[in-house]
Design brief:
It is built from one helix and eight strands. With 166 residues, the chain is mainly beta. The protein folds into two domains: 27 residues; 110 residues, Immunoglobulin-like. Keywords: Signal.
Length: 166
């Protein structure tokens, strides 16, 4: 009789533990440190974040230059700038001058000199430019979109939002 009472008590306790485990999310499996998946290191900033306002300036009185667009992306050890210049018609020469800028915590510094790329006798020009950068700093692109036609030079400027170098 005493043995039956002990068995019933043990079974009752096991049932209570099982119900509590179900109620509080016990899965029945054991987690081990070696089973954990490593997570990629998140980039960290070495300077405070700059204000992140893109900017564009194109004179609406331009006769030949239509518009310009630019964007910047970061990948391990570099940034890539995609840019497009559009003319209102086929022009003698069209292109883009690229500047990659690094935030030093209080102002933007050019990283190296500008790089110019262009083509002739077209109305639309699109290209990319990549630059090696240091992780932990913010970068943005400043692009000058330009055309030359019949001796007339017109340009406009785009400043992208910033990205954190990784």
């Amino acid at each position: 009789m005493r043995r039956n009472k002990i068995v019933k008590t043990v079974l009752g306790l096991v049932a209570i533990i099982a119900m509590a485990g179900t109620a509080f999310g016990y899965s029945g499996s054991v987690a081990r440190a070696e089973d954990a998946q490593p997570t990629a290191a998140q980039p960290f900033a070495l300077t405070p974040a700059p204000s992140n306002a893109p900017f564009s300036a194109f004179d609406p009185k331009h006769k030949f230059l239509g518009n310009g667009l630019s964007s910047i992306t970061a990948s391990k050890g570099k940034v890539t700038v995609n840019a497009t210049t559009t003319a209102n018609q086929v022009v003698d020469s069209i292109g883009i001058t690229f500047y990659v800028q690094k935030w030093n915590g209080s102002s933007w510094d050019n990283v190296g000199s500008g790089s110019t790329s262009g083509d002739n006798s077209i109305s639309y020009y699109s290209t990319t430019f990549s630059k090696t950068v240091d992780a932990g700093y913010y970068y943005r692109a400043r692009t000058i979109h330009w055309i030359i036609h019949n001796g007339v030079y017109e340009d406009g400027e785009v400043i992208t939002s910033s990205v954190l170098g990784i």
